[in-house]
Amino acid sequence: MRLSDVLLVPWRSTRRPLRWLSLFIVTACSLGAVAAGHFTSNSDWWLASTMVYCFGAVYAWAFWLSTTLLVAIDARKLRLPGMQGAVHASILLYAALMIVVPTLLLGALGADALRVALLTALAVTGGLAFVLLPRWCATLVGFLPALATSMRHLFQLPSFSDPRWLAWGALALVVLSIVDMLRWRQLLRSDTDNELGLGSAMVMQFRRQGITGNWSGLQQLDSGLLIRQRPDWMQPRADLRRAGPQSTVRALRVALGGWYMPKTAVGHLRAAAPVLVPMLLMIPVMAVMFAGDHQAHASRSGLIGFGAGLLWGVLFGSLMLTAMATVQIRQRWQRNNAELPLLALLPGLGDMQHVRRSLLRAALTMPLVTQLLLLLAMLAAALVAAHFVHLGGYTLLLIALPQLAATGTMVTQVLCTLGGRKLPTWGEWMIYAPFFVLFFFSIFVPVTTLGSHPWQGAGVAQPALLAAWMAMAIVLAWLARRGWRGLLARPHPFMPN
Q1: Most buried among 150, 167, 353, 476, by the most CB within 10 A?
Q2: Which residues does 273 contact at the CB level (< 8 Å), separation at least 6?
Q3: Is the pLDDT confidence value at 66 over 80?
Q4: Of 286, 274, 311, 261, nearest to 442 (Cα)?
């Protein structure tokens, strides 16, 4: 087994777009870690640098390096022990590199090397556990910041700078390592590829959903597969009343299907159950925490943590909503099958102007209303946090901008798809990669302004982020106008791309 073969395993187990996207994110987070350390003047500069780097490490192990498990599964079924051994050696080698290299570099600059090593190891094992565990575990991730902040005061959990945190971190690392090894072995030796349902591992769906396939994965997705992934109690209950020539918008929503399908009240509750159930469970948990805590400062910090966790959950939900609406529309218009011609022949649609207007209302009204509700929930969470800590104008604006940008991106992508003006792959890279960087930095920078030792560089970073968002808004407006003109120029909106 040669070292070059071991190093090339992750690069050969994924397609080129994912490789370059992962490399871009890891490089951007590494450069961001350098910038965070350069602009932070207090003694805990290394903590900000480590956190930024850990974000890239979590992404790499969750969505890139974890795909080597699929290669190991295929190698085991094909009775290729050499390939399976190369995968395992590659996983161990890349884990060592992503932990040892930042530890040595930051340790040489004066950081606490032991804490840096522990945090990066937690990022590696946590990112891998995220995709190896059942999918329902991912639903709880958005509430971890609120739970961590509140439980810190309820159970007297130490902070990162506290020497006692090393014991807690080491215990968490041991637990995550054992979970990763047991779950990897279980998935590797399983006779069936369980890709459906909330009980399946997320990594098992990467094979079908395009993470290891084409850039968007739309060629592997279809409505029947998406429906079969849900358990029976989550199956949609359609509401077909008033769907007909008298309501072309509702008829088009039925034709689009999937997420756009009109549902009954019970159907909406079942569809939202993965999000609503954890939120409802959070209410009694937080009530018990605050009821048993008699210190005002702890309750204040717990509420701030709950608000921050809610902000993360809302912004994550906004990104998921943007992806759902975009993929649903792009899937319909990218497939060259009978669906679009049947939509074009649907009786009672009227002239082309009425068809375009009805199609845009069907494609955008429900996502925009949902995004508005998420924006209101996010502002409510920001007001909860602002009630206890001072938040400047830049901070509040940066909190709202990612939500607004996600909404604008959704509208832009839908218009580009309907107008047949989708950018090539390299063009989407040039636009949406900086978008995700701005999105997460707009969440990270406001957090650095809180606490007793706020980041001094936030005063410079916040106006720079606002200027970058203004440039991104101009680009999105140009793309939306390009897609709108393409839609107007089409002889009929139901034309495949």
Answers
A1: 150
A2: 233, 234
A3: yes
A4: 311
Residues in the chain, total? 497
Burial pattern 33-43, b for ≥16 Cβ within 10 A else e, equals: bbebbebbeee
pLDDT of residue 144: 61
- Looking at 99-113, 239-253, 292-306, 400-414, which range is the least confident one? 292-306
Number of C-beta neighbours around residue 6 at 10 A:
19
The residue that leads in pLDDT, 321 or 126, is 126
Confidence of residue 370 (pLDDT cuts 50, 70, 90): confident
Task: For residue 411, give Cα distances in angstroms to 133, 255, 321, 379, 468.
Answer: 33, 20, 12, 21, 20
Share of the chain above pLDDT 70, in %: 68
pLDDT tens by residue, 204-260: 877 765 444 443 444 444 555 555 555 565 566 677 777 767 778 888 888 787 778
Confidence of residue 100 (pLDDT cuts 50, 70, 90): very high
3-state secondary structure the chain: CCHHHHHHHHHHCCCHHHHHHHHHHHHHHHHHHHHHHHHCCCCCHHHHHHHHHHHHHHHHHHHCHHHHHHHHHHHHHCCCHHHHHHHHHHHHHHHHHHHHHHHHHHHHCCCCHHHHHHHHHHHHHHHHHHHHCECHHHHCHHHHHHHHHHHHHHCCCCCCCCCCHHHHHHHHHHHHHHHHHHHHHHHHHCCCCCCCCCCCEHHHHCCCCCCCCCCCCCCCCCHHHHHHCCCHHHCCCECCCCCECCEHHHHHHHHHCHHHCCECHHHHHHHCHHHHHHHHHHHHHHHHHHHCCCCHHHHHHHHHHHHHHHHHHHHHHHHHHHHHHHHHHHHHHHCCCCHHHHHHCCCCCCCHHHHHHHHHHHHHHHHHHHHHHHHHHHHHHHHHHHHHCCCCHHHHHHHHHHHHHHHHHHHHHHHHHHCCCCCCHHHHHHHHHHHHHHHHHHHHHHHHCCCCCCCCCHHHHHHHHHHHHHHHHHHHHHHHHHHHHHHHHCCCCCCCC
